[in-house]
Amino acid sequence: MQPAGDEAVANTATPIGILLQNFQERIPNLSAVVWALVAIFAGLSVGRYAAKYSIYPAYTLMAIPVLGVMATAVMVSGDYLVSSVAMLLMLYATKYLHRGIMRTKNFSDLSLAMLCFGAIPLVFAPAALMYVALPVLVLVVHNSWREWVVSVCSLLFPLLTICYWGWCAGEDFLHPAEQIYASLFTTSEFELFSTLNPASLILLGVVIMMVLCAVSLIISDKYSLKVNSRAVMRFNSLLLLLCVGMFFLPSCTATAFAVIAVPVAMIVPLIFVRMGVGFTETLYRLMLVAAAVGFVSFLLGRKAGAAK
């Protein structure tokens, strides 16, 4: 259950993240079990959301294996609880946003989605990019200034709540915000390609190919998606681009894979219903084989390390 290489690099301190890290030190093995259960729950949930809200032109559950591979097969952070909470927040933010666009059109769902997005930086520092980018992304799916104001207020509410809580405890009101800002630019010493084996690199390349194909369909095939579905896909594509930006920050760790797994899992299934079966089936099989080989290589590496 112990992470290897750069997977063991700890996340930089955040108001809630540091509490989760301290709690994991007391229950390290149970934390790994929690991460496994959260990954299973998240995978089943994204598949259910996609079918429930009719996001794709045809019924598909391909979001389930895609999330599982992206969140657990490429690289897994040793901060299991931080990764678990960050992925759950991203999952529920996606759920409420999709429900608001596809079904209810209510302010409540938009507000709940932004509350979840706003809480992620309290757990994972690189996600602070959301405070800057999400107010712009909201205009992609909601061009009403009234909805934009609701989104921004809901996005900042978790941070302001933590600031108020700390102020009541005797700290400066802006201390949590300053902590997140400092952690955002603190070097974590994480290097993406230093730990990945060849199978994991192939797996990452296959997933990137799938994402590029899906994005090209969203841009070029204007009539294959309903109006609301296209709005959802545009938002997910831009959210994915925002999550990719986390990897270029000095504070990034392997937890970013848990965060980015949700938008990837919501976009990629589009290729399985709009592109040729031969091409998509080849990519899917290659993804599964690369994930299996990477897992076996990891186990063999751990066994060899233990033998020494």
Written account of the structure:
The protein is mainly α and 308 residues long. The protein has helices at residues 17-26, 28-52, 63-72, 80-104, 107-119, 129-141, 145-168, 175-184, 192-195, 198-220, 227-246, 255-267, 270-274, 277-307. The protein has one domain. The relative contact order is 0.16.
How is the quaternary structure best described?
Answer: single chain
How is the biggest beta sheet arranged? none
Low-pLDDT residue spans = none
**Helix fraction by DSSP (H/I, runs of at least 4):** over 70%
Strand segment tally? 0
Count of folded domains: 1
Structural class: mainly alpha
What proportion of the residues form beta strands (DSSP E)? under 5%
3D shape: globular
Q: Terminal Cα separation, in Å? A: 18 Å
